[in-house]
């Protein structure tokens, strides 16, 4: 039997012809990394290859690592196998990996979304024979409202809270969602404050994109300073001692999971905004159709349901197990350094 170009094993997605792994979840000698979220870029690999915008992000998270950055579409060859990075639109620096060998082309998406968020490099369709897709929101119930409408709702919520003399606390994961929210907040409403972990990552992202001014919350920050302002914080800050000194406040959360009734109540959030950095159901189907791929491999998320539906459409679709844990809301993955930041909120 012919060996597949990419195979799933206990360490990650392996290209035997090149002897390299894609987003491995265990330590390997050589890793190709799609983006900076901690379930996809883990510590301990011998060397890392990633899109150049992702280099400062993973260095911030992982420390002094051996990493090489590549431009969009730049072809690099390992043992005769051609690789290139193409925009995934998930977060800043997020990439799909195109793999070509002996006339066969595979694409590994990592995490991706097809809506242009005005911050990340927009998603690019890459033609291929086999397409490896995430399925974080692979159910028909997930259909996103356009970002412009969601952010108009966020800004209106903030303005009303300001008029009511309250602080707005908006939760979004530290890398990606926080900067996306920040990019589209209206600074004319008031001041934008940040939790220490959000500010640390935002300083890294500022090297690559223009973002509104923010103020880091420190022990010297007074409750009176925060009234009428908005605070961007990671979900883990909710219910912490850090947040209690901000009374009176109103909480909001931006996540695709807010599309589920009851999720906001279970999280004890006052206001939910459905805003995801992953594809919705129509986005997944359209992106797959556009690649021209006949073989589809479904990974993390609602993979069984989604692959069954794809087979009904005539695709050669199957599922594969991965250890990608997700990055939406209460599934946020944190490094030890970020956890320390979040507990104190002042670093």
UniProtKB/TrEMBL annotation:
It comes from the Bacteria. It comes from Flavobacterium akiainvivens. Gene3D superfamilies: Ribonuclease Z/Hydroxyacylglutathione hydrolase-like. GO terms for molecular function: RNA endonuclease activity. Signal peptide: none annotated. Residues 321-347 are annotated as: Disordered. Residues 338-347 have a biased composition (Acidic residues). This is mRNA 3'-end processing factor.
């Amino acid at each position: 039997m012919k060996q597949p170009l990419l195979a799933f094993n206990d360490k990650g997605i392996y290209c035997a012809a090149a002897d390299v792994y894609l987003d491995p979840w265990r330590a390997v000698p050589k890793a190709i990394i799609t983006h900076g979220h901690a379930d996809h870029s883990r510590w301990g690999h011998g060397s890392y290859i990633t899109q150049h915008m992702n280099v400062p992000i993973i260095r911030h998270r992982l420390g002094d690592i051996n990493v090489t950055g590549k431009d969009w579409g730049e072809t690099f060859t390992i043992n005769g196998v051609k690789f290139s990075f193409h925009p995934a639109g998930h977060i800043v620096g997020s990439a799909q990996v195109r793999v070509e060998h002996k006339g066969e082309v595979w694409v590994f998406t990592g995490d991706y979304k097809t809506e242009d968020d005005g911050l990340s490099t927009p998603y690019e369709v890459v033609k291929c024979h086999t397409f490896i897709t995430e399925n974080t929101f692979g159910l028909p119930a997930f259909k996103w409202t356009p970002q412009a409408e969601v952010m108009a709702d966020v800004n209106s919520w903030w303005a009303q809270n300001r008029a009511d003399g309250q602080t707005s606390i908006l939760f979004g994961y530290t890398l990606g969602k926080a900067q996306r929210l920040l990019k589209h907040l209206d600074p004319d409403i008031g001041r934008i404050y940040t939790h220490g972990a959000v500010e640390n990552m935002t300083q890294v992202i500022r090297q690559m994109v223009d973002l509104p001014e923010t103020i880091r919350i420190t022990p010297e920050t007074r409750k009176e300073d925060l009234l009428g302002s908005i605070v961007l914080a990671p979900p883990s800050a909710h219910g912490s001692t850090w947040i209690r000194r901000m009374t009176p406040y109103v909480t909001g959360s931006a996540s695709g999971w807010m599309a589920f009734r009851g999720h906001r109540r279970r999280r004890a959030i006052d206001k939910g905004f459905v805003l995801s950095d992953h594809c919705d159901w129509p986005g997944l189907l359209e992106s797959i159709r556009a690649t021209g791929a006949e073989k589809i491999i479904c990974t993390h998320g609602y993979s069984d349901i989604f692959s069954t539906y794809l087979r009904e459409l005539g695709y050669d679709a199957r599922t594969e197990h991965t250890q990608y844990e997700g990055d939406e809301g209460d599934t946020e993955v944190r490094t030890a350094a970020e956890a320390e930041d979040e507990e104190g909120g002042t670093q």
